[in-house]
Amino acid sequence: MSHFLYQTSSIWLNIILEHAMDTTSLTLDALSFKKFAIQVQKYIRITLGVNDIDQEAYSLTFKSAKSNGGGLELSDSNDFGKFLNEYEKLHRLQKEIVVIVQMKQKFDKKKKRKQVKEEVLESDDNSKKKKMNAVPKISGLTPHQKAIGKLVSEFCEQ
Q1: Considering Cα of 137, then 142, then 147, then 152, what sign does the dihedral take?
Q2: pTM for the whole thing?
Q3: Rounded to whole angstroms, how far apart are CA atoms 22 and 101?
Q4: Does one domain contain both 91 and 127?
């Protein structure tokens, strides 16, 4: 473990979710790769609006914020050790580190929208059935609606 980790147990970084074109600054616990990965996974779930996502569905890379190129892979404890060493070095130089999340499969919000749309259509179908058979009850009307109904029925009688 790095000397830096004994001083603090959290790291500050920018995380880029390429699929959602989202960049966020986060402070994450850096005690272990597993804990770090769980926190990144939670961020991805919240950003994409999905309930569950496997770690196999995305890849992580890291690099200095100002550097060109793709960065180094961050997929296991060994890579996490390299990441922490790089973080410590950049932190001493007062530079930022970026973690890039690349989705391996498309997590389109279209699927989510399609599910929501289907649910809305189902509820619309159910409400149409209810509306066709439902007779408005006077007890369910507001006083204003009752007054309007009374006026309309009086005009219809004349």
Answers
A1: negative
A2: 0.59
A3: 10
A4: no
Q: Percentage of the chain with pLDDT > 70?
A: 73
Helix, strand, coil % in the chain, rounded to nearest 5: 55, 20, 25
Percent share of the chain, pLDDT over 90: 8
CATH of the domain at 96: 3.10.20.90
Distance CA 16, CA 100 (A): 5
Domain that holds residue 114: 109-157
Locus of tokens 């058979």: 133
Q: What is the pLDDT of residues 132-145, one digit of tens each?
A: 555 667 777 788 88
Structural domains counted in the chain: 2
Residues 69 and 133 in one domain: no
Q: How confident is the model at residue 127 (pLDDT cuts 50, 70, 90)?
A: low
